[in-house]
Structure formats: C-alpha cells, structure tokens
Design goal:
Elements (H helix, E strand, L loop, with lengths): L1 H16 L26 H20 L1 H4 L5 H13 L4 H13 L18 E3 L13 H12 L11 E2 L6 E2 L14 H18 L10 H13 L4 H13 L21 E2 L2 E6 L2 E7 L2 H6 L7 E5 L2 E2 H8 L8 H11 L6 E9 L2 E11 L16 E5 L2 E5 L8 H8 L4 E5 L9 H5 L7 E9 L7 E3 L3 E3 L9 E6 L6 H10 L4 E5 L9 E6 L3 E6 L2 E3 L15 E2 L4 H6 L3 H11 L2
Parallel strand pairs: 12-13, 13-17, 17-18, 18-22
Antiparallel strand pairs: 1-15, 2-3, 4-10, 5-6, 6-7, 7-8, 7-9, 9-10, 11-12, 14-15, 14-16, 14-21, 19-20
Length: about 575
C-alpha cells in the first residue's frame, strides 16, 4: 500500500507536468490562423443556444465513438458549427443544426458489448438528466440518447486516460494554441467549453461545487466570448475556475491578472484573523520596519478603500474550497499595487491612525507562507515533548527522530505547511498498533463519463518502533492537499488529536487541464473521503481542538496553536 500511495503522488506530478500531445489531424489546418468568428454582442437566445452547443459538444466528445476514438479534430469541428448556431433565432433552429451535425458524424454501429453503469460502489451518477429536456426537441434528444446507449464497454478515450494505478484523469491530446490572437470569440468559447465539460465529467467533487453548473456556463459564456484582449479573457476564465470552489483549480500561469495587480508590494506578511488583515511579520526585515507597520497591526483600509470592500470585489477571481483559504490567498498579495507610496488606515492597540508606506518591487519569498516553528525539523520542546515539522522533513531521518522521541509523553507533528516529502506511511506506520484505514477514494469511469466509483480503503500497517505517547497534529488554512491527506492518516492513530483550525479543503491527486491561449488549469482528480465516506472536499480537516490565532497573540509573538497542543499533552 505504501508503494501505491507513492505511485499516486508520482502520477499526480506527472499529470500536472505533462505537456499536451500533438493531435494527429495533420490534414486539418482550417483554423490554424484563428476561428474567423467575430462577435460584438450576444442576444439571450444566442447565449442559450451556445450553452446548448457547449453541452452537446462535450457530451459527444466523451461518448460518440467517432469522436471519443479521435477520428475528428473536435476543437475545429466546434469552430465549424458555431457560426451556424449563432445564426439561429430560437432553440428549435439551433437543435436542427446540432441534429445535422451529429448525423454528419455517420451512423453509429450497435455496440457489442455495450457499456453499463455498475451500481455496486457507485458514488456519483453521470449528470445526464438534461438528455430528457424537452427544449432540445424530440429528434435531438433521440439522437443523443442513441449515442449514449451505444457507447462501447471498453471505455477507451482519445482525449482522456486515467493514471495507473491511481485513477486521476490525464487530459491527453488537448492543444493549447499558444499563439492565438485576441480577441477570438471562437477559441475563447472553446476554452470555456473544454474546461466546463472536464469539470462536468471528470471532477470527483462535481456534486459539492455549490451552485448549478449549467447556470455557471450560461452566465460565464458572454463574458468569456466577448472579452476584448488577452488580459480580459484570462480574468474571465479565472472567474470561471473560481466557481468550481476547488483550491486546486486556478489559471496557474496567469494569476498575475488576478486583482490586485502591480509590480510592487509592501514588504510585510499579512494574515487574516477572522476578517481582519493583520501584519504577521516582515518579508524583509529592514524594509518592513521602514514602513512603520508593526506586528499585530490591523490594516483597515488601503489607498482609501476598506479591506472588506477589496476582498468582496476580488473574491470572484479567487479559486478556493472555503473562505479561510480564499482569504489566505488574498492576504499573500493584498498590498500589491503600483510602485511608490501607499496610504494605509490601521488599527493599533485599538487606536486608528493613518500611515504612509512605500511599496517596493515584489520579492516573492517563502517567509510567511507557513505557520510552523522556526528552527530545525526535529526539536525537543521539553524533556518529555518532541516536535517535528513536515515542511523540511526527510524520510531517511525519521528513524533518528523516532529514536530521539522514544519515551516522551507527547509528539507534536506540525503540518501548518506543505510536506517536503511524502511521509504518510514512513511516519504514520509508527503511530498505529494495528492495521488502520484512514481514507477512501473515488475514481472516474471512462465507460461512463461523469460516474465515480468507490475504491479500496487506504490503510496504515503498523511498524516498529511504535511511538506510544500522545500525538498532536497542528493544522490551519495553510494545510492543503498532501498536508490534509497526511493529517487524515496520522489522525487515524488511537492517541492522536488535531489542534488548530480548518484546513484548505482540497484533497486528491491534481490533474492538469491544458487550455487554449497557453493557459493551465487543474482539478482535484480523485475523491478523498474518510473510511466511513464522510467528505473532506470543501470541509477540510476539522480539528478536535479548535484554536484560532488572535491579534493579541500575534502582537506578543506567541504560537497559540502550539501552546494548546502542549497543554493537551500535559493534561492527564
């Protein structure tokens, strides 16, 4: 099982780093120079018809045997049919265009054998109720249902495969068109449709997005299609990715267009305590002190705009599974802006005051990106309390750490960070005294796009030396993905408690999504649940002992979470 999880991690990295393969349609160059689609506006009827086109295009991509096997350049087929759909005046006319489009793919041979949806261990059913929508018209509904009924049982796909043995999707043969010229409404719609359908069919957390995904398509469509330049297109696609409410999802190579924008920043590390933006430290000591800001200061307004108004305005562009994580990410760039002076209204010791500080060229440092303890990876906090932080841990050092911690009353494992190495089993096996399940996984089904099935429970197997003392796992909004998965494993041990605050709520191997314009997004590719199938996505790892840092604690330089963990170890 240890090898399995290591392979899971490797597959996630490969899926994220893999360049999209060149698609084998060497004779189809019609839109190499652009889609030739121009738009100045969209009527409500055109928006509805284009949304229907996007859904049908995605359905055929993953279900029609001609398309799913890679016999058509499906991106270019979308660009070919879009003008005809735009020209229609009502739903019936658009349905007729789509019906002819499907017919032009040729007759579908009866499948033998046909795919069936296994009911055993089924977590999510495909969201195909729309195939019964009367607005499609009877002929189009019949054509789509025929495609669905005759999908092959083998489930092999040209545009997607599943990483072995994990099951997270790898999106193959998806061109990124890095040289596309803006504006190009055709390729801009292609980006939206590709992303929307990947979430629709391959996101294990589609059911906890938090809104109607069809509404997201219709509402985003005119904004994406009518964007007039690259920056505008990227901002609108950022807003689309944010609607998934998955911290793994973003436009990772274009976050510079996310507000606030600028080349300079205040040299301070900010952290939201509740809804208050608090100075937690300096990213560079001399420059930070020169601003006049002190640790524990609350920034109430920036350049005469209240922080509450800024966060409300920026929120639609920040992909996050929950609000603490959204505020975490906002805090990292909150004071970004034009180089030069910044006007601040701050609260210090309950007194408001105005302050002028200088933004300096952005220096992205790791300082402030974790909340763990300074110093060595392993520390003795007292004769009977050991401490390990995972931000710098090495698997090869774990036997040495366990030997040093032997006989102590308690061990603090700090995961208010991202683990430097995957130590779920290398460390977790020493915390349990019997085989202990800690996670259940769901994975997609290529023969039934949109379906997710339960896999086997992942289990820790005990190993010597066994650590017999109390274990305190420290978590907060920094803890994400592998950090959360690691915490789930350690928490399953019988003497473990989680101390701190709710985590980022984004777990599961990451699958990269290549998008037109050279953009990169991603989703959580497999579902991670507790063994009893309770969810973690958007929920996070909820602590056994909740400890929220306070402004007073930050002012005093205290680590209130660590203090609470030590107190719990000493409590009889």
């Amino acid at each position: 099982m240890r090898a399995l999880l290591l392979m899971l991690l490797l597959a996630a990295r490969l899926a994220y780093a893999q360049e999209p393969a060149r698609i084998p349609f060497e004779n189809d160059h019609e839109f190499d120079g652009g889609s030739h689609i121009t738009l100045d506006s969209l009527t409500p009827a055109q928006v509805e018809n284009l949304a229907m086109l996007g859904k049908v295009w995605g359905f055929l991509k993953y279900h029609h045997p001609v398309v799913a096997s890679g016999q058509r350049h499906w991106d270019y087929e979308l660009l070919r049919v879009t003008p005809a759909v735009l020209a229609t005046q009502d739903r019936a006319a658009a349905s007729a265009v789509l019906l002819k489009w499907i017919a032009d793919l040729g007759d579908i041979a009866p499948c033998n054998p046909c795919a069936a949806l296994p009911q055993a261990d089924l977590h999510l059913r495909p969201a195909l109720e729309w195939l019964d929508d009367g607005a499609l018209g009877a002929p189009l509904r019949a054509a789509l249902k025929k495609v669905h009924a005759n999908r092959p049982a083998a489930g092999s796909q040209f545009y997607i495969s599943h990483a072995k043995p994990v099951g997270n999707p790898v999106f193959e043969h998806e061109p990124i068109y890095p040289d596309m010229k803006f504006p190009d409404p055709g390729f801009q719609l292609l980006a939206l449709f590709r992303f929307w359908n990947i979430v629709e069919y391959w996101s294990p957390y589609r059911d906890v997005i938090g809104e109607n995904w069809d509404d997201a398509l219709r509402q985003s469509l005119p904004k994406v299609a009518l964007a007039r330049d690259r920056a505008g297109f990227e901002r609108e696609m950022l807003a689309v990715t944010a609607r998934v409410n998955d911290t793994h999802t973003n436009l990772w190579n274009t976050v510079q267009v996310r507000p606030p924008v600028g080349r300079c920043d205040l040299p301070v590390a900010l952290r939201f305590i509740g809804n208050k933006a608090v100075v937690a430290g300096y990213t560079e000591d001399a420059a930070g002190k020169a601003t006049g800001l002190r640790q524990g200061d609350i920034i109430e307004a920036l350049d005469n705009v209240p922080i509450s108004e800024l966060t409300r305005t920026w929120a639609p562009y920040y992909a996050a599974s929950n609000q603490p994580t959204r505020l975490r990410d906002m805090a990292r760039g909150l004071s970004t802006g034009a180089c030069g002076g910044a006007a601040l209204r701050i609260s210090r010791a309950g007194q408001e005051q105005e302050l002028a500080a200088a933004r300096t060229p952005i220096l992205r440092l790791a300082k402030g990106r974790t909340h763990d303890r300074d110093g060595d990876t392993f520390q003795m906090l007292a004769d009977d309390i050991a401490y390990i932080k995972l931000s710098s841990i090495k698997k090869d050092d774990i036997p040495r750490y366990l030997a040093a911690a032997a006989g102590t009353k308690g061990l603090v494992i700090d995961i208010r960070n991202y683990p430097s190495e995957f130590v779920v089993f290398a460390l977790g096996q020493h915390l349990v005294d019997k085989p202990t399940g800690f996670a259940s996984i769901t994975a997609g089904d290529a023969a039934n796009p949109g379906a997710f099935h339960w896999e086997k429970t992942v289990t820790l197997q005990p190993a010597k030396p066994h650590y017999a003392g109390k274990v305190m796992v420290l978590l907060d909004e920094i803890s994400q993905s592998q950090a959360e998965y690691t915490a789930m494993a350690f928490r399953a041990a019988p003497r473990t408690k989680v101390v701190g605050s709710t985590t980022a709520g984004a777990d599961g191997n990451v699958s990269s999504i290549p998008l037109p314009g050279g953009l990169r997004s991603s989703i959580s590719g497999i579902g991670i649940f507790y063994p009893d199938r309770r969810p973690t996505q958007r929920v996070g790892i909820v602590p056994d002992i909740e400890v929220l840092p306070t402004v007073q604690g930050i002012q005093a330089g205290r680590d209130e979470v660590l203090e609470a963990a030590i107190a719990e170890i000493r409590r009889d």
